[in-house]
Amino acid sequence: MPIRETYATQLNDPLVAANTIAAFTGPQNLIMTTGNAAYVAKPCIIPQGYYANGTTIYTRAGGTFTNASTTPTMVIGLYHDTTALAVNVALTETSVASVQLPWLLEVMTVIRSTIVPSAVVTFTSGLLTYGTSLTAVTTIPVPGIAQATVNCDNSAAKELAVKATCGTSAAGNTITLNKLLFLETTRI
């Protein structure tokens, strides 16, 4: 029996098709076509004033990435509109990753204070696991800097999104989103 009764709610619609983005820099919303042109899935919009103290949101996103003959850097993270809640330190991809290597982002966001709706205090941390070959992965902390709170604006409806930034825009540099889950856990 749990100490406190809780429930979990999926905040986003299930992702029913993969989305691949090529030749981009960023930050690129991973549920939009290349260049942030159009949505391929329904965005996760957080309504105005939605966050409450103690709200916890678990984010799990994953897919694959490839690169051309260059070795670009890649940054993947969680964003509230244009505010980066947590991103990894730019990692240099495996040279000539012409195969699709896996990546998996798992982060937890806790709402610490909603006293000022335009500056809601959040704390986000987790892990990014990415392939260095088809049979090996590396796991790094997210954010890739000293952990600290980040303020975001909840005074208007804003999108919660997983975004990626590629250091080099080339046709062979791609990232594919195969799964996306925003899960809110709240006590009853």
Q: Explain this structure to me?
A:
There is one protein chain. This protein is mostly beta strands and 188 residues long. The chain has one domain. The chain is built from no helices and 14 strands. It has strands spanning 6-10, 19-22, 28-29, 44-46, 56-66, 73-80, 83-87, 91-92, 101-113, 120-133, 136-142, 150-152, 158-166, 174-187. The strands form two sheets. Strands 1, 2, 5, 9, 10, 11, 12 and 14 form an eight-stranded antiparallel sheet that branches. Strands 3, 4, 6, 7, 8 and 13 form a six-stranded antiparallel sheet that branches. A hairpin with a 2-residue loop joins strand 6 and strand 7 (83-87). The radius of gyration is 17 Å and the shape is globular. The mean pLDDT is 89.
* Total separate domains: 1
- Give the biggest beta sheet: 8 strands, antiparallel
Return the average pLDDT rounded to an integer: 89
Radius of gyration: 17 Å
Poorly predicted residue ranges:
none
Distance between the termini: 14 Å
Q: How would you describe the oligomerization state of the chains in this entry?
A: single chain
**Main structural class:** mainly beta
* Tally of helical segments: 0
Order of helices and strands: EEEEEEEEEEEEEE
Number of strands: 14
